[in-house]
Design a protein that fits this description.
Jelly Rolls; 4-stranded antiparallel β-sheet; 6 helices; globular
Length: 273
C-alpha cells in the first residue's frame, strides 16, 4: 500500500523506535489561531480547563472534533495502523512555566485495558515543545513489550493514576521530541516516555489524540465509547457524536456518559494490578 502521508523511512522509524517526529500537520498561523481559541476557552473557565472537561474534550469543542478528523493527521495515522480508525480519547497537556509538575516514565497502554497494543497517539504542538520547557522524551525501541507500573505517590506527577514504570530507565538513551507549533509526533502505546518540569517562562501546550484500529477491543467485554473517524468495524463500542456547539448542553450530557464509561475501564484495570 502506498503511504498517504508518511514516507517509507518514517514508517520504518516508527516500527523500529516506537515513534516518529516531526510530522507537519498545520502551518504556524493555523496553530496560532487554534491557540487563541484554546485561550478563549481557558478564560471562560477561570483560567484553566477542568480535568473533567479535558478528557475527550473533542466531544465538547467543535474545532477539536474537526482536528480529530483532519486528514492531515488521520492520513499519517492510517499509514501506521490501517484504514479503519477511531479516536479513543483526547486531552490538552499544558505546562505553565516555570512549574514543578512533570510526567514520570510510563507506557500509555497501562490502564487502557485493550486486547491488543495497537494504537497511535498523535501529540500535536500548539506552542514550541522542547527540552527547556518540559517537552516529551521517548525511549527508542521500548515498545516491544509491556512493563510493570506502580503508583509513584508523587502529587506533582501529571498522570491521572500517577503511574511510573518499575524497571530502571537509562535516560541517556532518551530522545527529546522537539516540535514547532503545528508539528506532531506519533507514538506507539507501549513506548516508554515522560517529560521533565517546564523550567522556562513560556507555556508548553500540546493536544494528544489517541487512535485505535478496528481489530482492537476492550478486555473482558467492558463497554466504552469511541469516535469513529474513518472506515468502520467498531460495533463493540458506543459511537460518539459531534458537539452541536461549544459546550452545548446536549453534548455535555453525552460527554458525561462517555467519561464515566472510560473511567470505569481505567479504574477497573488499575484495581486489578
Amino acid at each position: 500500500m502506498t503511504p498517504r502521508r508518511l514516507q517509507d523511512s518514517q514508517i520504518a522509524q516508527f516500527a523500529r523506535d516506537g515513534f516518529v517526529f516531526p510530522v507537519r500537520a498545520y502551518s504556524s498561523d493555523e496553530m496560532a489561531a487554534r491557540l487563541e481559541w484554546l485561550q478563549d476557552i481557558e478564560a471562560s473557565k477561570a483560567g484553566r480547563i477542568p480535568p473533567a472537561l479535558n478528557a475527550k474534550i473533542h466531544l465538547l469543542v467543535p474545532w477539536a472534533w474537526d482536528m480529530v478528523h483532519d486528514p492531515r493527521i488521520v492520513d499519517a495515522v492510517e499509514d501506521l495502523i490501517g484504514p479503519n480508525l477511531a479516536c479513543w480519547g483526547t486531552s490538552f497537556i499544558i505546562k505553565n512555566g516555570p512549574e514543578a509538575r512533570h510526567v514520570t516514565w510510563h507506557q500509555d497502554a497501562t490502564h487502557w485495558s485493550l486486547n491488543l497494543p495497537r494504537a497511535v497517539t498523535a501529540w500535536l504542538a500548539f506552542t514550541p515543545s522542547n527540552a527547556a520547557n518540559g517537552g516529551v522524551r521517548m525511549l527508542p525501541g521500548s515498545h516491544h513489550h509491556s512493563v510493570a507500573h506502580r503508583d509513584s505517590g508523587d502529587p506533582l506527577n501529571m498522570l491521572g493514576m500517577r503511574e511510573e514504570v518499575i524497571e530502571a530507565v537509562d535516560e541517556t538513551r532518551a530522545v527529546d521530541v522537539e516540535l514547532a507549533p503545528g508539528e506532531m509526533s506519533l507514538h506507539h502505546p507501549l513506548v516508554i516516555h515522560g517529560s521533565a518540569p517546564n523550567r522556562s517562562r513560556a507555556r508548553r501546550v500540546g493536544f494528544a489524540i489517541r487512535y485505535i484500529p478496528a481489530d482492537v477491543r476492550q478486555h473482558e467485554g467492558r463497554r466504552n465509547s469511541v469516535t469513529v473517524v474513518r472506515g468502520g468495524g467498531f460495533d463493540d463500542f458506543e459511537h460518539e457524536r459531534a458537539p452541536e456547539g461549544l459546550f452545548h448542553a446536549d453534548a455535555v450530557a453525552r460527554h458525561k456518559r462517555a467519561l464515566r464509561l472510560g473511567m470505569e475501564v481505567i479504574f477497573n484495570t488499575a484495581s486489578q494490578r
